Amino acid sequence: MTPRRSRCACARSAGQPAMQQTAAIIAGLTFVLAVASVTLNHLRLRRRIALETTRAAAVVEPAPWEREGGRDLTAPPPEAVAHQLTTETPPTASGPAGENSPHEASRPPESISLVDRAPEPLRLPPGAVMRRPDRAAAAPALLRRDLTRALDAIPKLPPGTHAVLKHVDQPGPAARTLSAVVATEPFVLALLLRGANAVIGDGHEPVETGEDAMHCLGVVTTRSLVLRQRVAIALRDGVGRDVLADPGRARAAQQLWSHAMAVAAAAEHLAVRAGGTDPAQAATIGLLHDVGKLAMLRVGGAAVAAVADATRDGAARSTLARERHALGGDHAAVGAYLAARWELPSDVTEGIRRHHLATDRAVLSLKAPLRRAVLVVHVANQLVKYVHAYAGGVEIDPVPAGLLAELGLPAAVERVMDEPLRKVIGRALDVAAATAPVAAPRPLARAG
Predict the structure, then answer these.
(1) Is 362 exposed, middle or buried (0-12, 13-18, 19+ CB in 10 A)?
(2) CA-CA distances (angstroms) from residue 366 to 263, 348, 444?
(3) Domain layout of the chain by residue ranges
(4) Which tens digit of pLDDT belongs to each residue from 171-191?
């Protein structure tokens, strides 16, 4: 019995160090986990405090309906702010506040003020007005018979136009098609050379070849010039001399084309910036979005007179409402009618029809690529008007923050209208002025 007991005692004595080591390891791991838990809780607390501090210091941008003339209606009046500053920072015995004042050290530097970083509100250019909401805008159009007869008399687009639009979403084939047009049509080449030399400005070697002009202007701008020339020919052919000799209509048409060129360039820029949108499709719809207005200028007569008559008894209504009252449909419906008659791509026709209905439920039924293109054109159309008010009383549609958010753009239009976009619009207006058929009149408003 004695040997067996001695062996059990030895086994127990041999297992005790292993148990002690295991207990020590468990105790160490428990301590490490406790320290890690305390550290994580501390970091979470610091992060929460930092977020609350940032939110408290952030500037809340007022919604469009909380503004009036660029002023934030939710902010206290200036005199109340001045009174508050006076009561919170009283002068000291050593001098006025700011001179050896104990409050001076606690003031944040003006250079890092969040208010200073916020972009300035977009101000309406002279002659422009904000368009009033109109629930009847999406109603089906039923154009007057005399207007449709006049539109049916407009000739088809010149040969080669559909080839220019065929590869609109393929830069390589599109460039080859445009090169063939430039090589065979001297008038188009002259347009491109004038536009390219206007872009490069003085102090550079002049552009002398069509290839260099296309390289300077880009495929989208080149296509815009070619399409503008084609559409202008169709709208000009068959028009009486009295219409061609009317300087008022000529100036209005030129300003509309300048606006269209700028919208096309801005739409391309915003499509690239937003992503998920075909820049070429957006630019094409942007160029032709107001072709209905150009057609109305072309047919003149009863159409223009009817809209003018509607302004006398409906001055409080928007231009779109007056057009629908006088013509049975607005200029978007007129443009879509003409685009369908010209057998333009269905997406382009639908984009023209919907370019003022970006916030309407009917646009939700469009396929995602076309919907995004229509939204981009709608935004570009409004922002261009802030830079170039092409006519007196031009109306600007509000751009909801939700629409911009859907495109992935900043929620405030002031942040969308940044310096690169302003340069794109300015460049397009320069090209439009340089390629105009007559001397370009001075724009009614050209901001920043």
Answers:
(1) exposed
(2) 21, 12, 36
(3) 64-117, 139-434
(4) 677 777 788 877 878 888 888
Measuring CA to CA, which residue among 87, 164, 86, 186 is closest to residue 345? Answer: 164
Q: What distance in Å separates the CA atoms of residue 428 and residue 266, rounded to the nearest whole number?
A: 9
> What DSSP string describes 335-347?
HHHHHHHTT--HH
- Cα angle, residue 17 at apex, residues 16 and 19 outer, rounded to 5°: 65
Contact of 310 with 328, CB cutoff 8 Å? no
In the numeric block, which tokens belong to residue 128?
A: 């422009």
pTM score of the predicted model: 0.68
CATH topology (fold) of 139-434: Hypothetical protein af1432 (1.10.3210)
Distances (CA, A) of 61 to 119, 250, 359, 421: 10, 42, 22, 22
C-alpha dihedral sign at 423, 429, 434, 435: positive
Asked if 231 contacts 288 with a C-beta cutoff of 8 angstroms, the reply is: yes
Contacts of 385 (CB under 8 A, 6+ apart): 125, 128, 259, 394, 396
What residues contact residue 60 under an 8 Å CB cut-off, 6+ apart?
Answer: none
